[in-house]
From TrEMBL:
Record's protein name: Putative redox protein
Domain of life according to the entry: Bacteria
Annotated Pfam families: OsmC
InterPro entries assigned to the protein according to its UniProt record, in alphabetical order: KH_dom-like_a/b, OsmC/Ohr_fam, OsmC/Ohrsf
Signal peptide: none
Amino acid sequence: MIVVERIAPDGTTHRITIGHHELISDMAAPDGADEGPDPHDLYDAALGACKAMTMLWYAKRNGIPLEGIRVGVSRDASGERQGVYRLTTRVAIDGPLSEEQRGKLETVAGKCPIHRLMADARTEIETILVPEGRSCDLA
């Protein structure tokens, strides 16, 4: 379970706890203190991380000598209110790779689970407001 909790009573910075990992999220100034990435950044970063990890996993399983990988993610949110949120990823890979291997890695990047989730799945979200003083634990 993921828990998001406000850190200071008068601030916008939140602690995100995922298992034993902690992240910080905030809003950019002037609305927030810019103490961490905002939720859009975290959403976009999930795509970049998934592409990198999926390509690395595929390369390891298939003996492809992938030595380095960097994924840049840029966003165009100008149409977000109309239902269009456009992300562009640019992937740089290093290693003694053939054109065939590079092509396979590019194909695999488009099949990462988060890419498919963002592009193909319909997400259903339920929000439940719990009574004051109660845990947000879903279990």
